[in-house]
UniProtKB/TrEMBL annotation:
Domain Nudix hydrolase: 38-168
Family recorded in the similarity comment: Belongs to the Nudix hydrolase family. NudK subfamily.
PROSITE patterns for this protein: NUDIX
Source species of the chain: Endozoicomonas lisbonensis
Lineage, uppermost ranks: Bacteria, Pseudomonadati, Pseudomonadota, Gammaproteobacteria, Oceanospirillales
Recorded catalytic activity of this chain's protein: GDP-alpha-D-mannose + H2O = alpha-D-mannose 1-phosphate + GMP + 2 H(+)
Domain of life: Bacteria
Names of required cofactors: Mg(2+)
Protein name (database record): GDP-mannose pyrophosphatase
GO molecular function, one term: ADP-ribose diphosphatase activity
Gene3D superfamilies membership: Nucleoside Triphosphate Pyrophosphohydrolase
Record keywords, A-Z: Hydrolase
Keyword Hydrolase among record annotations: yes
């Protein structure tokens, strides 16, 4: 191990995350600290059918704006939920869509410079309409389908700024799934 943890203390926590400060020792003998955000993994879903992709738009408080992104989320009540169940549930919750097929694309980390949170990416196809079931944190969330070319243009033109959305789409495309 390149860095040894000497001490660890939680400095903040709520039902979604905790922040800890770790006193560390480097191989060189130099001590330091790391601030770490502990947060459960989440799922992100690429719902695609007939050259259309389904996105959600919601208000994102930290950046004070509404943004288009892929459906994504975690379950605070089940932090260790099976990621396929999580992806299936989040897709239905946010868009009302039910996927006949879910293909695993991969796992990525959100921001491993300060957090241990990662996300599991799924490609959802054979889509059927159902009903949404938004929770209170998703108040005002809307969903809409876009042509793939329009979606790519939204990324290029900055209408989509969510790195998880861009990364998930790029990884699926590079893997030849799109």
């Amino acid at each position: 191990m390149e860095i040894k943890t000497l001490e660890s203390r939680t400095v903040y926590s709520n039902k979604w995350m905790s922040v800890r400060e770790d006193k560390i020792l480097r191989n060189s003998g130099q001590e330091g600290i790391f601030g770490v955000v502990d947060k459960s993994d989440f799922a992100v879903i690429l719902p695609i059918q007939d050259q259309y992709i389904y996105l959600v738009e919601q208000y994102r408080y930290p950046v004070k704006g509404r943004w288009w992104e892929l459906p994504q989320g975690a379950w605070e009540s089940e932090p260790d939920a099976d990621h396929l169940s999580l992806a299936t549930g989040e897709l239905k919750e946010e868009t009302g869509l039910i996927a006949g097929r879910m293909k695993y694309v991969g796992h990525q980390y959100l921001a491993y410079g300060f957090s241990n949170q990662g996300y599991h990416i799924y490609l959802a196809t054979d889509l059927k309409a159902g009903s949404k079931n938004l929770d209170i944190e998703e108040e005002g969330l809307i969903s809409q389908k876009f042509n793939i070319k329009e979606f790519e243009s939204m990324i290029i033109n900055g209408k989509i700024k969510d790195a998880t959305t861009v990364n998930a789409y790029g990884l699926a495309k590079l893997r030849g799934l799109l």
